[in-house]
Design a protein that fits this description.
8 helices, mainly alpha, 185 residues
């Protein structure tokens, strides 16, 4: 994406393609973070570890990173993208330094449970058979869809309805991030 921006040949297709790849990669990162924590943190400390993980996510992704990204964008339109890629690479390297027995875990999972497809089918059958968890799952899906929809139009609401400029929108999202961080404590 940085290359097409620098070359001046940026198109909607290249932006959407890059966003698709980044969104797909983020799914793996999110699943990895939530599955790695229980493997490196004792059970009695999982609540605190998850709160810290959520707090650090809010702090970096919603409070610190947007102004840094905006600054990099003002320095050069393509600059935030290689900086983001470098941060992802650094994160991947740091995760590989976490001491776990990934190979042993994968082999044990395969011996105990079988294929990923059969595990997924078992999980769906279990979910269907447990009404409280089914309701919780549907509620979470509905929440995520509506939350994503609200964030998708927040910039338009702030600029067109509230009359905010870019600084006002930045302050609005900063206030939301601060509220989220306070909520994790």
């Amino acid at each position: 994406l940085a290359a097409v921006i620098v070359s001046g040949t940026v198109s909607s297709a290249s932006v959407l393609g890059a966003l698709f790849v980044l969104g797909t990669a983020e799914i793996f990162a999110d699943v990895s973070s939530s599955s790695l924590v229980p493997r490196v943190v004792p059970r009695q400390h999982l609540g605190i570890a998850n709160a810290r993980l959520t707090g650090s996510f809010l702090l970096t992704n919603q409070l610190l990173a947007p102004p840094i990204g905006a600054f990099l964008f003002t320095v050069g339109m393509a600059l935030p993208f290689p900086a983001n890629a470098a941060c992802f690479t650094l994160g991947a390297v740091l995760v590989t330094r976490v001491a776990t027995d990934v190979a042993d875990f994968a082999a044990a999972r395969e011996r105990e449970h079988g294929s990923l497809r059969s595990e997924m089918a078992d999980g769906v059958r279990w979910l269907i058979a447990h009404p409280p968890m089914r309701t919780l799952t549907l509620t979470i899906i509905a929440f995520n869809v509506t939350y994503g929809a609200a964030w998708a139009v927040l910039v338009l609401y702030a600029s067109e309805r509230l009359g905010m400029n870019a600084v006002g929108f930045g302050l609005l999202t900063t206030g939301i991030a601060i509220g989220g961080i306070i909520g994790t404590t």
